[in-house]
Every structure is written in structure tokens, then in C-alpha cells.
Amino acid sequence: MELATTLKSQTVHNRVREVGINPNYWYPVVWADQLKVGEVMPVVIWQQAIVVYRDANGQVYALEDACPHKGVALHKGKVQGNHLACPYHGWEFDGSGECVSIPYLPPGQKLPCARALSYPIQEKYNLIWIFPGDAALSEQSKLPDIPEFDQPDWLMVPIPTHFKAHFSICNENTMDVFHGYLHQELQGWFDPVLINLQATETSVCADYRVSYKGTLPKLLGWSDRANKVTTRTISIRYCYPHYHSSLEGLSSLYLMRLPVSPTETRSFSFFFVKIRLPKWILQPIEKLLANFILRLFQKFVAQDSEIIESEQQSYLANPHRRYIEINPAIIALQRVLILQYEQSLQKFNE
């Protein structure tokens, strides 16, 4: 549905600061190369404590991080072959969560009916993804499509972020191109104009016309001269619960959200850019350039983080304070977040 792009005063839906997630989507929890064979790692998806482990064959599994015997955190245990052993009594669980061994029982004795909750899990794009909702729906839900991944003509920069704020505040920051004012000292964009806005029950698509200039845009091939003002369109696509934004085919950013709690959000992002240099020149400096871009992004993120966390603290201090928004893309985003949460509650109660 196409929406008006007029900037006019609207009341912010404060309820969006209290909503939970719709769990029937895939969420990233850790970079895959950080979980080695035989290692165990605790993760959290919206207050659900989960343990992820990689068995001796390199396969990953996800179980509730609580032993069904005594409730001890299974991430304190260890991998034994293809099983995860609880640190307390050594009960072993397979990838489905079923108890398959108790070391102090005699061979052949029937094991108790003890099972840890298991979660659908998969690896893609050097990320480990978990489906925390109804496992029967996991095959119907798709991971974000990242066609630039492993393409040699794109320089890829992985970017992890961590905010002490509700995911709705973080999502609004990503949708809000008008906050370029915050980044002006970092050669941020200016004169943004919302030129197109569309929304569905699961998505918000916004196009903004922005201007920029400086050394960085020239280095990235976004402009011909550093002192020249260039105007282009940045397209932001929010498909619950993740983002993709692009700058006219010159760059592409995929931002995958991990809501941890009502006051904590993590993100796993990939920034892709086409560098207009011959491959023989680019290849020796590729890592240096990627590190330079990462450090620059970290400066932008640090500025965003301070503002995002300030917004969270103000809300916690007074949840009933009324706020005014003039960007219709933010209002559309809030509607999607609230609707997705309400739909998840409805499914749960069916």
C-alpha cells in the first residue's frame, strides 16, 4: 500500500516500546566462524536463554539453556562427540534435546524421559540462525536474500553492533534518514527528502533523496570530486524483522536484528560497496580498506548508540510521556512492529 510522504505531526505509539517479537522468523545469534568444533556458546533471543554447540562433525544444534534434570545452564557443560553433557551430573543430550546417556546408570537401564527443548537452526552467510517460534513454521520462513555475498566485485565489511535499547528504537533509527544532522561532523548526508513510502503487514519500504560530499564519498566511488555535492536516492527496505538499504547500486547494507531483551538489541550487518579500482590494485589493500570502512562505521554507530540509549533511558524514566513524530515512515514501521507482535500472541493463544 502506497502511503503519503508528507511530513506532518503525529503522535508516537508508546506501546511500541513494550512489544515483544514475533518469534516465527529466523534470527541471527552469532558469527558462525566464532563457534569452533567442540565449542558451546550461550545466546539469548528475546529473553529466551539458548545454548548453541558444534559437535565433533561440525554440525550445529540449539537447545534450551536449562538441563531438564536440575535446570543447570547447559552452556556450562561440554561437547562429548555429538552430544552436549550437563556440567552437574554428566547427563548427555543429542541435537534433538533427548537424553541419551547418564554416566552413573548401569548399561542397558532405561533412561528417564528427559528432553531439552530444541530449536531449528541453520548456517548461512557466516551466521548461525535460530527459529525461536513454532518449529513447524520454520520451513515456511525464509532467510534474507543477500546476492552480493561472496561476489568478487563487491567489497564486504561485516559490522556487529550492540545497543542498550528496545529493538523498536533501534529500528526507527535505521528507518530515519532525517537524522543525518547527528553525523554532520563525519561527512554525513544532508537535505533528505522522503519521496516514496509503501507498507504492508510485514514491511515498510521508503525511498529518500539525500545529498552528500567529501573525501569518503569520493573514495567509495559515490561522487566524482570531494568538493562536489552529489544527490542520490537511498532505498530502505524493512522486511520484518530485518533491513536492507541500498544507494543506487553503489552500496548495499544488510542489517539483521537480534532482539535480546526489552532494553538490549544486537545486530549483525554486512556492508557491500563497489570500489572503482582494478582488481590487481584493490586486492593487496582490500583488508586495509575494509578495516578503514569498519572503523568509520563504528564512529557513526557510536553516535547513534549514544542517542538511541538516551531515548531508551528517557522512556524508562517516564513511559507515559507523549512524543510527536513527523516522519510517516516511522509511524508505518511502528504499526508493523505492533501488528507482528499481536499476530504472534494470537497464534500462541489459538
Main features:
single chain; 350 residues; alpha+beta; Rieske Iron-sulfur Protein; seven-stranded antiparallel beta sheet; four-stranded antiparallel beta sheet; 19 strands; 21% helix; 32% strand; 2Fe-2S
A few lines on this structure:
It comes from Tolypothrix bouteillei VB521301. By secondary structure, the chain is α+β, with helices and mostly antiparallel strands.
Task: Tell me about this structure.
- Helix content is 21%, strand content 32%.
- It contains 4 helices and 19 strands.
- Strands 12-18-17-16-15-14-13 form a 7-stranded antiparallel sheet.
- It starts with 9 loop residues before the first strand and ends with a helix.
- Pfam families: Rieske (PF00355), VanA_C (PF19112).
- This is (2Fe-2S)-binding protein.
Write the SSE topology.
Blueprint: E1 10-11, E2 27-31, E3 40-45, E4 48-54, E5 60-64, E6 78-80, E7 83-85, E8 92-93, E9 99-101, E10 121-124, E11 127-130, E12 155-163, H1 167-175, E13 190-199, E14 203-212, H2 215-219, E15 230-239, E16 242-247, E17 251-261, E18 264-273, H3 279-317, E19 324-325, H4 328-349
Helix pairs in contact: 1-4
